[in-house]
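BACKBONE STRUCTURE TOKENS:
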Amino acid sequence: MSKDAVDTAGDASRVEGHPTPADAGDAGYSKDLKPRHVNMIAIGGAIGTGLFLGAGGRLHDAGPALALAYLVCGVFAFFVVRALGELVLYRPSSGSFVSYAREFLGEKGAYVAGWMYFLNWSTTGIADITAIALYTHYWSLFTDIPQWVLALVALAVVLAVNLISVKIFGEMEFWFAIVKVATLVAFMLIGIFLLVTGRDVGGSTPGVGVITDHGGFLPHGVMPVVLVMQGVIFAYAALELVGVAAGETAEPEKVVPRAVNSIMWRVAVFYVGSVVLLALLLPGSVYSAGESPFVTVLSKIGVPAAGDVMNLVVLTAAMSSLNSGLYSTGRILRSMAMAGSAPRFTARMNRNQVPYGGILLTCAVCVLGVVLNYLVPSQAFEIVLNVASLGIISTWVIIMICHLVFVRRAREGLLTRPSFRLPGSPVTEIATIAFLVAVLGLMGDDPEVGRKTLLLVPLVAVLLVGGWFAVRRRVSQAADRELTGLTERP
């Protein structure tokens, strides 16, 4: 992206006479996130428990065709982040898509966007602490410790870290991402070495024969590949963190385009490349939902210590995801609280400019995950993964709807689009929305978990409607205060 393009992107705003609206929730934040932090947050968002843990069970169910599922979902995920990136350059905000929903869809749109995102990350947090407990059980030293105890300890540690400051958060995510990327690269180099040398891996000779001798590219047919789509969407769920982090960096117009544009090759290399390698090294039937597929491979090559190291790394990835979830929901809830659609205490910030109220609320829901790990430890991860998928699919749909309205207003001359744009509008947005809705509908073909998850949709809808009637008066009062403030400004 040229300097002129960046400058044009940074100057994007409403045309004269139509000033860009401010988000009251953006006040009070530090701008301590550096470009390297945001870039690595984008990378870290693309590498998490969805790949490190979730890929094992999905490889078992769908086989090598899982790589195609990751590629297709990755393309649509890129469209979503590209649309969000354009909105960020139009107006950076820590409230991110909730703030844009407020501008383009009204307060009801912002209310739905915010609480569905909260549903996503609070349940993702449950998935993360479940993953951490599962990873820790890999070592015999912790086998006798109940899964729920390990989950509670993990939650307490990450909560303490997240409340310190955004700079510490950024630094931790930077190094978490470095570890994840370095480990994946190392694993891929090991996998390529095994393929080239033909060394035995758990009784199998690596290569195309591993696929052809065990049912081919679609060993269980097309339907299992379709059914794992919601899990694959979950794997990409943290990519929108770039939009939230942009509100706490000094130069979003320079940082965001680079971070967004690099997402596509990360998907191709880290997700598709890793899954192809895994499929070439061992049959899908060898992998399982209870163990990271990378740990499975490294253990099979007769180097137990390698499995231990890899398990430590994937445990770090789960901690990183949990850390990011607390960070993002804290900012989103503060934006909502300032508009009256979230509890007042979630607007509170500590002296380190961290919105601790929202972070604590998310943490409270994660405690329910500790209970889930106590009641159904074997099913906890898959249950919350499907519920989290409801939240992320709705969030992505809202982002694309916001972008459609944004483009329409630009065509009406009410605002100016930045030069960094989502290509193919409005076809791209409509195709993405249709794909996401189809993935949601396909959950119904999974009788064990997916269908039960869809039955939650009416319940979530009822809760949202009831919640709106409870907060609408406060939302109206907040809007009146904002309007009064605007009319009194010189």
Q: What stands out?
A: DSSP finds 22 helices and no strands in the chain. The chain has one domain: 40-481. The two ends are 38 Å apart (CA to CA).
